[in-house]
Design brief:
The complex is a heterodimer of chains A (252) and B (236). Helix content of chain A is 78%, strand content 0%. With 252 residues, chain A is mostly helical. In chain A, helix 2 packs antiparallel against helix 3, helix 5 runs parallel beside helix 9 (174-202) and helix 10 (209-228) runs antiparallel to helix 11. The longest helix of chain A is centred in the middle third of the chain and has 36 residues, at 91-126. Chain A is elongated, with a radius of gyration of 25 Å. Chain A starts with 5 loop residues before the first helix and ends with a helix. The mean pLDDT of chain A is 94. Chain B has 236 residues and is mainly alpha-helical. Chain B has helices at 4-22, 32-42, 46-59, 74-89, 96-106, 109-136, 140-149, 152-177, 181-205, 211-232. In chain B, helix 1 runs antiparallel to helix 2, helix 1 runs antiparallel to helix 4 (74-89) and helix 3 crosses helix 5 (96-106). Chain B is globular and about 80 Å long. The chains are: A mainly alpha (252), B mainly alpha (236). At the A-B interface, helix 2, helix 3, helix 5, helix 7 and helix 9 of A face helix 2, helix 3, helix 6, helix 7 and helix 9 of B.
Chain lengths: 252, 236
């Protein structure tokens, strides 16, 4: 039977939302890790000395993706319970963290930061003409329905399976889903670029409408090529604004 | 004239979002689309917030905090630009010219925000060292609490920055109102250009394997729907 109650697990999960509160270049998420685990460590190690030792071993360097850190936190609880019972040594939990933080960080970065976030952002921006002020609400719903459910699932996976959480993470097949999301993001951004050029063209007098529509679409394509060729995004944005402002001042 | 209640609201929203971005939750309330629209709603100009937010969301779509790397602070750019846009409009409702002016003047605050974040990391480093010392002295409760002390400087620093931008917007509002018609028209034309460029940058920012193919499909779908609407008329 587990020494940790459901309330303890909930406390750890809730405190994991603060994992980056004191992110620092030396220990990175070390303070957040120790802070999140503390309710469980207090329960597992009632004696002061053992509790201090447990906190100290989690104040060492730690860094991973803040969402998938939930999986590692769950796995740490799995190991700490065994350490508290004397079934394994403290070095096991350190090895577990060291082995998983890098690969899970890469997985989390690739799925959440580089796929889900741009896709949800691009889709929501593309729907601004239809949804207006509800588009940001849609963005939050799209993003967080995946974010919170995966975060909770990963934590539970870590608590239940310990080292074997890797099998569960692999089964989720996040890299494949990430590639689909990135394609969706690109399609949405392309659709929005086309919509912008049409609507800006329609908003102007007949003679200038096609010029503005064509110019906007051409500017979007040119921006893509320039940024792909490592030209500064700022230079491209300010340059486009300058060109169109010049045209608008003399023709508009 | 500076509306101090707006400055205070801008500061509070800017500070809260800085915490959400870095220290707590990370549910993406701090993304430009949400942050700027929220700022617009608070300052009675939701439209300015939304239209500034769309451009900034697309512009910063590819930015990501990978490992220890720190991207530009898109939240600061969004809160500062939206606050300034709402203040420049001064209750009369935003226009593309105002959105352009705000973006052109305040887009760079994203870089300033990154600089500020790097500074604040040093403070967090001192907290980490203190936690290690306190734990060694046998007080684990106090050691782990150091984590929460890392939050307040973010709230104060980024809140102040957003408040300053709202104040600057109010101060610049008379200048905006006095611009000649030609300059206003020039700024109004700059907005669609910036939005289109931001969409092009966003295609690149999605990091898709075949970005042009997918973007082309999306664009063709929109063009086909528009052409169908034009030829067949709106569906009854």
């Amino acid at each position: 039977m587990s020494a940790l109650s459901k309330a303890d697990l909930w406390k750890v999960f809730a405190r994991s939302l603060f994992i980056q509160a004191s992110w620092n270049p030396q220990g990175m998420q070390n303070l957040g890790m120790a802070f999140a685990l503390f309710p469980a460590l207090r329960r597992l190690y009632p004696k002061s000395e053992a509790q201090t030792e447990a906190v100290q071993r989690h104040l060492t360097f730690f860094n991973t993706h803040p969402y998938v850190a939930a999986a590692i936190l769950g796995g740490v609880l799995f190991h700490e319970e065994k350490i508290a019972k004397g079934e394994e040594g403290p070095e096991r939990v350190a090895a577990f963290k060291a082995a998983l933080m890098g690969p899970l960080a890469a997985l989390g970065d690739g799925f959440f930061w580089l796929s889900l976030l741009p896709a949800a952002g691009a889709v929501s921006c593309a729907l601004v003409p239809l949804l207006g002020l509800w588009a940001p609400v849609l963005f939050l719903l799209l993003y967080n329905s995946v974010h919170f459910s995966l975060r909770a699932y990963l934590f539970w996976l870590g608590v239940r399976r310990g080292d074997r959480l890797v099998e569960g993470v692999a089964a989720a097949n996040l890299p494949f889903k990430g590639a689909r999301l990135r394609a969706l993001g690109a399609a949405s951004a392309g659709g929005l670029a086309a919509h912008l050029s049409i609507s800006f063209g329609n908003a102007h007098a007949e003679a200038l409408g096609p010029l503005l529509a064509g110019g906007c679409l051409g500017m979007g394509v040119l921006a893509y090529w320039l940024v792909a060729g490592r030209v500064s995004r700022y230079a491209v944005l300010y340059g486009a604004a300058l060109i169109f402002a010049g045209i608008g001042a003399f023709l508009g | 004239m500076v509306v101090w209640s707006h400055v205070a609201l801008a500061g509070a929203w800017g500070g809260l979002l800085a915490l959400e971005r870095r220290a707590f939750l990370q549910a993406m309330f701090s993304r430009p689309l949400v942050a700027a629209t929220g700022m617009g709603l608070l300052l009675d100009d939701a439209a300015s917030g939304l239209f500034v937010g769309v451009v900034l969301e697309l512009f910063h779509l590819g930015g990501a905090a990978l490992g220890a790397a720190l991207p530009e602070n898109d939240t600061t750019a969004a809160t500062c630009t939206a606050a300034a846009a709402a203040a420049l409009a001064h209750g009369s409702g935003g226009t593309p010219a105002i959105w352009s002016a705000a973006i052109l003047l305040f887009l760079g605050t994203g870089r300033l925000g990154r600089l500020l974040e790097r500074r604040l990391e040093r403070y967090a480093g001192r907290l980490s060292a203190k936690a290690t010392q306190v734990a060694a002295l046998g007080d684990p409760t106090r050691a782990v609490r150091q984590n929460l002390w890392g939050m307040w400087p973010h709230f104060v620093a980024f809140g102040l920055l957003a408040a300053v931008c709202a104040g600057l917007g109010h101060l610049l509002s008379p200048v905006m109102g006095a611009l000649p018609l030609r300059a206003v028209r020039a700024l109004a034309w700059a907005y669609p250009a910036m939005a289109s460029v931001a969409a092009g940058i966003a295609i690149q920012g999605t990091r898709s394997r075949r970005p042009l193919l997918y973007a082309g499909v999306g664009a063709l779908a929109v063009l086909a729907i528009s052409a169908a609407n034009l030829l067949l008329g709106p569906v009854p």
